[in-house]
Write a structure and sequence with these properties.
Helices cover 67% and strands 1% of the residues. Strands 1-2 form a two-stranded antiparallel ribbon. It starts with 8 loop residues before the first helix and ends in a 15-residue tail after the last helix. The chain has three domains: 64 residues, no CATH class; 134 residues, Flagellar motor switch protein FliG, alpha-alpha superhelical domain (Annexin V, domain 1), CATH 1.10.220; 92 residues, Flagellar motor switch protein FliG, alpha-alpha superhelical domain (Annexin V, domain 1), CATH 1.10.220. The chain contains 20 helices and two strands. The C terminus is likely disordered. The protein has 335 residues and is mainly alpha-helical.
Length: 335
């Protein structure tokens, strides 16, 4: 059983939905994105014995959050724009606004987020590389990395360079993609360009690619455009870069990470990263973590990388929310 103090956001969401009953929970789940559904579903399957304390912690957290909300309706694009800017930051809010407010170009692409990576590949693999780059730019970074890894090796570097060079996509190009997906959409080809791609998008996708493929792609990009390769590398944030996050940020991150994932992620990391984690835990929790690490037998590198990527996903979400500041190559300069 997970201690109540170690429940992460997905655990609390799962517990909250489980207390609602099947019909209400199903209705709520309809309004969630694919990544949220997968994350909460996994949490539900792992919560085999929910204690009274776990429910109380979840409900207390929910009430605290609700008390900070204002019970007003949302009726204008400007209001949505203001709320998203405050919640997500201007850059991420702009990308989401393009999807919400442009109307017509996003629905078909959105359906891809619910598909398995192999299914997405089968749909796009014979299309023009620029069309594939648009699709990868639109997908969440981890799913885009999965799709990229399933595409032919000799195309990956080129696709990532196309993504890095992309700043916006004209409506005509979005219409072409919609035609490929054979989706019946709202609007037509008129409207503003959608913000997709960019060097940061390329770096985030490369963050989720497995290490051997990452090295190969980086090498090919360096051979073709050394300056671009440096720009992408500067925006990447790896597990080792957690050493540059301040103590308060590490503590906020640890509250969202399960112990099992943390143990896996720390296997094979250097002492500096482990000590950074240990010093931001209580002495008892740190001692228990040390014991778990020593008791953990050999694990596959792929399992370690998967655990590290999951923690990095949480770190990036917290950074987007403004809860923590990512230092190192992936962080912003403080002034």
């Amino acid at each position: 059983m997970i201690p109540a103090s170690r429940l992460n956001g997905a655990d609390k969401a799962a517990i909250f939905l489980m207390t609602m009953g099947e019909a209400t929970a199903a209705e709520v789940m309809k309004h969630l994105g694919p990544r949220d559904v997968q994350s909460i579903g996994a949490a539900m399957s792992n919560l085999d014995n929910v204690s009274k304390e776990m429910v109380e912690v979840t409900m207390t957290d929910f009430i605290d959050r609700m008390q900070k909300q204002t019970p007003i309706g949302i009726g204008s694009d400007e209001y949505i724009r203001t709320v998203l800017n405050d919640a997500l930051g201007e850059e991420k809010a702009k990308s989401m606004l393009d999807r919400i407010l442009l109307g017509g170009s996003s629905k078909g692409l959105e359906s891809l987020k619910w598909m398995d990576g192999r299914a997405v590949v089968e749909l796009i693999r014979y299309e023009h590389p620029q069309i594939i780059a648009i699709v990868l730019s639109y997908l969440d970074s981890d799913q885009a990395a999965q799709v990229l890894g399933l595409l032919p090796e000799n195309t990956r570097a080129d696709l990532l360079m196309r993504i890095a060079a992309m700043e916006s996509v004209q409506p005509a190009a979005m219409q072409e993609l919609n035609d490929i997906l054979e989706m019946q959409l709202r609007g037509g080809t008129q409207g503003q360009a959608a913000s997709l791609g960019g060097i940061k998008c390329a770096a985030e996708i490369l963050n989720f690619v497995d290490r051997s493929a990452e090295a190969e792609i980086t090498e090919k990009i360096t051979d073709t455009d050394p300056e671009l390769a440096v720009q992408i590398q500067d925006l990447m944030f790896t597990f080792e870069n957690l050493g540059d996050v301040d103590d308060r940020g590490i503590q906020a991150l640890l509250r969202e990470v399960s112990t099992d994932n943390l143990v896996l992620a720390l296997k094979g990391t250097d002492d500096a990263i482990q000590e950074k984690i240990f010093k931001n835990m209580s002495s008892r929790a740190a001692e228990m973590l040390r014991d778990d690490l020593e008791a953990k037998g050999p694990v596959k590198l792929s399992e370690v990388e998967a655990a590290q990527k999951e923690i990095l996903t949480i770190a990036r979400r917290l950074a987007d929310e403004g809860t923590i500041s990512l230092g190192g190559p992936g962080g912003e300069e403080m002034v």
